[in-house]
Amino acid sequence: xxxxxxxxxxxxxxxxxxxxxxxxxxxxxxxxxxxxxxxxxxxxxxxxxxxxxxxxxxxxxxxxxxxxxxxxxxxxxxxxxxxxxxxxxxxxxxxxxxxxxxxxxxxxxxxxxxxxxxxxxxxxxxxxxxxxxxxxxxxxxxxxxxxxxxxxxxxxxxxxxxxxxxxxxxxxxxxxxxxxxxxxxxxxxxxxxxxxxxxxxxxxxxxxxxxxxxxxxxxxxxxxxxxxxxxxxxxxxxxxxxxxxxxxxxxxxxxxxxxxxxxxxxxxxxxxxxxxxxxxxxxxxx
Length: 286
Fold this sequence. Notes:
Catalyzes the condensation of (S)-aspartate-beta-semialdehyde [(S)-ASA] and pyruvate to 4-hydroxy-tetrahydrodipicolinate (HTPA). The active site is at residues 135, 163. This protein has 286 residues and is α/β, with parallel strands linked by helices. The chain has one domain (7-216): TIM Barrel. It contains 11 helices and 8 strands. The chain has helices at 23-34, 55-68, 84-96, 114-127, 138-141, 147-153, 186-191, 202-214, 219-232, 238-248, 265-277, and strands at residues 7-10, 40-43, 74-78, 101-105, 132-136, 159-164, 177-180, 196-199. It has an 8-stranded parallel beta barrel, surrounded by 4 helices. It is globular, with a radius of gyration of 18 Å.
C-alpha cells in the first residue's frame, strides 16, 4: 500500500450561491489545507456531502481533486454505496480519474448479513486497481464491522486499511492499517503505531494535528488542548460545523445541501467562541 499520509482531511465540498459545486473554492481550500498540515484529502465522503452529489458531480470532484492537488498530497475517493453495482460504478470512475486510494463504506440501510458484506466487497475488489480503505461507522450504517470480519475482508485483493469510526473496536487488525475515523481517537491510533487519521477538525486546527504526528512527546498535551475544539465541532454534523467554521475564517465554502441545514445561531455562536478562544479569528472575515 502506498503511503497516503497521516493527516488526511475529509474535505468539505464547497457550493456557490446557485447551489452548484464551487470548483475554484474547492481547489483553494485544498491548497490552504495542504499548507496547514494535511497530507491528503478524502473527497466525496460524509463531510463532503457525497449523499447529495449526483454521479456526474461526484466523479467530477474526484477528477478535480486528482488534477489540482497540491504537490505531494494524496487523494482518497469516497466510493461507497448500499448498491453493489453503484459502488462498482463509482470505484471504476474514481480509478479512471486518478484517485490514489478508495474509501468504501459497508452497505447502509439495507444492512446485509456477514455473507452479503463479504460478497459486496469481493465484487468491488475485483474491479479496483488500487488500495481500498474500508469504512466502519455503525452510527451511520446501522451495522458494525467487527474486527474478526475486518480481518477476513483484509484477505481480499486491494483491501489494505480501515477507517475505524467505532471507538469500541479500536485494536490492531491482522492485514489492515488503521486510520482514526473520529478526531478524538487520533492520539490512540498514532500510539498504536498506525498511520494516522481521516479527520475533520484538521480543516481548522491542521497544524496542531500535524504536530501530534511529528512531536509524539507532546501528543497527549496537544490532544488535551484540542478537546474543546472537538466538542465545539460536534454540535451539529461535520459538514455543517466545518462549513460554518470555514466561512467564519474567510473561506467561502457556502452552505450545506438539504437535508443538512446551515448552522443555527446557537451552533454558530459555539463555533465562533471556540475560534476566538484559540485566536483563530484574528484578521478573518466574520
